[in-house]
């Protein structure tokens, strides 16, 4: 079992950057693929980015490609989401999630595949 805590959210202006962190407690963090999802008011939760347990495979949503980068440091039990060139439409609560997906390169964009979730961190981008 793993517990996840997000941090790094805040209020920024369009064009600025933020780095979110997701710190996991528990053992064997390197056994888990991790993803970031977000949910804006009145909208469904959507996939943002994912990284395999080995860190060698990543994917991101088309809406954030070229602006957001996911990375991980297994030695620190931490996954990051570097968000550059933020836009007002990026405003949402951002959640990290973890799952044991088996094969070291496997990731998933589906929130139903993830068993463990953090409490979320608010990101607000003003125009």
Task: Kindly describe this structure.
The protein is mainly beta. 0% of the residues lie in helices and 48% in strands. The chain contains no helices and eleven strands. It has strands at residues 3-7, 10-13, 18-25, 33-39, 46-51, 58-60, 68-73, 78-83, 92-99, 116-117, 121-126. Strands 2, 4, 5, 6, 9, 10 and 11 form a seven-stranded mixed beta sheet that branches. Strands 1-3-8-7 form a four-stranded antiparallel beta sheet, with no helix packed on it. A hairpin with a 4-residue loop joins β7 and β8. The chain is globular. The mean pLDDT is 96.
Produce the secondary structure layout.
Elements: E1 3-7, E2 10-13, E3 18-25, E4 33-39, E5 46-51, E6 58-60, E7 68-73, E8 78-83, E9 92-99, E10 116-117, E11 121-126
Parallel strand pairs: 2-11
Antiparallel strand pairs: 1-3, 3-8, 4-5, 4-9, 5-6, 7-8, 9-10, 9-11
